[in-house]
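Lecture 7, part B: from sequences to assemblies.

Below are the input chains for today's worked example.
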Amino acid sequence: MPEVPAILRRGLPWLLLALAAAAPAALSGYDLNLLARFMAMAILALGLVLVWGHGGILSLGQGVFFGLGGYAIAMHMKLADLPAGEMPDFMVWSGREALPLWWAPFGSATFAIAAAILVPTLVAALFAWAVFHRRVGGTYFALITQALALAFATLIISQQDATGGFNGLTDFYSILGFGLASPRTGVGLYWLTLAILCAAFVGLRWLTASRFGMLLRAARDGENRVRFLGYSPVPFKVVAFAIGALLAGIAGALFTLHAGVVSPALIGVVPSIEMVIWVAVGGRYSLAGAIVGALAVNLARDAVSSAFPELWLYCMGALFILVVTLMPNGLAGLLKGRAA
Amino acid sequence: MSEAVADLLLAVDGVTVDYSGFKALDGFSLTLNRGDRRVVIGPNGAGKSTLCDTIIGRVRPSEGRVIFRGEEIQALPEQAIVARGICRKFQAPGVLPTLSVRDNLALAARRDRRWWKALGTGIPPAERAAVDEALETVGLTARADVPAGTLAHGEKQWLEIAMVLATRAELILLDEPTAGMGPAETSRTADLIHSLGPHRTVLVIDHDMSFVEQLGAPVTVMHQGRFLKQGSIAEVRADAQVAAVYLGHAA
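Predicted structure of the full complex, as structure tokens:
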């Protein structure tokens, strides 16, 4: 195997960034929108590297936080497009008399954006504190997060008149006064997504290299040793999990803007597992790997499911088995193995 | 008399640890004065490791108290006990395998262990000296940057001893520190413990009688969770009861 020259490895992120910057000029509106969706997913994947790779916390419930972010922004867009005093269409069809009280503040864009960022973060922090404080971890934690994803999706489906139920929320026209149909808005949202992706990458690079990252890995490898060196591992794990949820919430909000829809089908158990697979494919210890994994798996998904819609779930299962058995450190592990 | 009380560092007072009917410790008591060296021996299952577990807060006694510097600590969270100045080396080396040797020590040497103080990079200068000194003490300076998981077994034991020392704990619990070491490494470990000075109090659990002899410290013998005998190594060796306990189990 030829060695990967250092200059190529160093230069690769810059090359990718240059390609990403060139994309709005080179790609059609449809393809650019697709790429932007995948980049939003990559933001979530970065969070999983911190949570799962460095923290050793397997979350099968990232869809919940993705959904909280997505619904927050979707609720605002439903309200923003309405003439004053009217209710969103689906509420009228379900026979509701008035807007639910908890919908009202989402009429404010500032509130909705703050909620898309803060609600997932706070929910995750409270949830993680309650669980880690009781010293529940490992497989049990993964199962609880999966149950959370199931419960969240079920709740949304069951409250048809307030959440749009199984169909979710869709038919948005504008955000902050920019028409979503305009190609210029699409390009603007693409740049926003790219900027947040880069910021998340740089921020997590710093965090994982900091003493915080060191302690997080220490708690992953020897929770007792860390405890008996005088540290409580709980806050490190809670903060990591909350940051993962923060990024998932932002990803959900951006995805909803790009896709023009948010629905239970995007946030339940199966999508939550898919999110873990992106990161497993890319390499769960590698931030760059997670971005590549999220983009590659979603591209493949798009290609496979447009040709053979029934086949994707089988492909995903096979992919997961392949990665777990043959390349436990994902694509990043292959590259490193070759370079070494 | 009052001077003796002032020197008292640790008192384990009538502690019972009950594992659903099985008493790993049964009304056990022990006191340590500042600067003491003490060895605890006893056949397998005598409750030696449970004693360490109880002092450090890993198991909670159903009866009795653990008093450190005049304060009851048996109900405190582990990290609060460590913060008061007790640190333990585990039986199986408890180093953090993916962290470098230096980072292992840096975590141990850290003064402020609140999480938001970890939002920074590198080892603060004030702690770097302590880390370098700890590396020097256990002879791992040349291997400071390798992952701790790649060290040889004896080196891992020393690294963990160095970590425990780097916390600046006043009371140090060493649970079988020489397990898996050869004779040369064992006597280096004994020298290290001798070199610690009067501001450290050390409680050692070990099976290796040659190591216990090299330590030359008073010996407490445990049996079935209870106190059996205390004295110099020679006195304990000559004791018929102690011999019976060991032979009974060795046979």
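Note for the exam: Chain A has a mean pLDDT of 91. Keep this in mind when comparing with the next example.
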